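Please, why this fold?
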Amino acid sequence: MCVPPDAVSRWVGQLGDDLHGRLARVGLVEPRRRESVEAWLALYVAEKKHVLKPVSLKKIEQTVAKLKPHFANLSVRDLTRADAAAWRKHLQEEGLREATVRTHAGNAKAIFQEAVERQLTVVNPFAALPSGSTPSQETRYVTPDDIDRVINVAPGTQWPLLLGLARYTGLRIPSESHRLTRLDVDLDKGQLTVRSPKTEHHRGHEWCLVPIQPA
């Protein structure tokens, strides 16, 4: 089978359905798949169940729940950038925070970029939507004196420990702190071994060493 040059493949991908259908009927191109949005979303979620962590999968499912009511009756190929922009505007009108809207937009980008890679459509209609994190308006530098005062009045032994780990070692609570065991503490070398579920899928970032010293 002859593989056409990339330029030819892009040209074919941009053809209207009528002309593409004519070429398909005479065997010059493969017939186009017209996967419904609903079917694609269901397949995407089913496949991600095997590769994503529960928290990440839940976020994807929440985005899918926002996409389905708007696009379930359309095919993936029929979606336009105007459709995507209208969907984002609807999320805003629902009263969602901008950070949440950006998260859904980013998830939608990823979902439909994979549809492009599988040749279910030519253009990712969500690609231009604003997404990503937004600067927090509630950030504040917590000084050592501040956190020490909190630690001194925190109840029990676990709360002071968690507060200290969060402030002085920068651990994620609870995903990193709750994985620690006694074997992770090496007082002789003055280091703490921290395993990170958030970055463990990146080679070389499965764990890190944090310097510590006895109180």
Q: What stands out?
A: The mean pLDDT is 86. Residues 144-211 form one domain. The helical segments are 6-13, 17-25, 37-48, 54-71, 81-93, 98-117, 144-153, 158-169.
